[in-house]
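Final report, Chapter 2: Outcomes

The project's central promise was a pipeline that accepts a single protein chain and returns its three-dimensional structure in a standardized token representation, suitable for archiving and comparison. That pipeline is now operational. To close this chapter, we reproduce one record exactly as it appears in the project archive, with the input sequence first and the structure output second.
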Amino acid sequence: MADPIRKIVREPRFDAELLQIEADLKRADELLSGVTWILQRDPERYGTRLSQWDDVWFIPAADVFPRSYGIYYTFNDTYVYLLSIRESEEP
């Protein structure tokens, strides 16, 4: 049986940071749609865990925004929590 699809929860900090990014909003929506599709199904496959002591993960959001941004998130069996989106280098 396939794993259940997780629900996405956008934290207030994530939404506030997203609003501050100067980019084509349609392209940003397309990126977020693709990233959330991936994270809902397999948040470990494309993300990188930041440390063995922390449950925060990173996934790059390149080629959409004017600079290199990354999305920071955490998850459990039911939810993926989008914590932050900010300019960052891949870990």
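Archive annotation: Helices lie at 12-20, 25-41.
This record, like all others produced under the grant, will remain available to the consortium after the project formally closes.
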